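Bug #77: duplicate submission created two jobs. Keeping one. Sequence:
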Amino acid sequence: MSHEVAHAELEIDAKEADEMHEAMDYAQHRATWDGFTNMVKWAMIELAFLVLALFCFIEAGQPLVGAALIIIGLLAIPANMLFGKRA
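Kept job's structure:
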């Protein structure tokens, strides 16, 4: 792609950004996106606790540690909802 074409596309994108449609609620869109990414982050954390707990149950022979990891993982999500930062 030539430099002129890339520059022209940037100018078009800048014009489109300046002319955002007034009917769209960008703040709500951003809040929804932030909520979704936060949910994915906590799902990954929960999965990490679950994998470690299963390792403790199956391979390490430490069922109490495995149970503790499952409980910690399950309590982390509501704790984030209660004490996490608000948007």
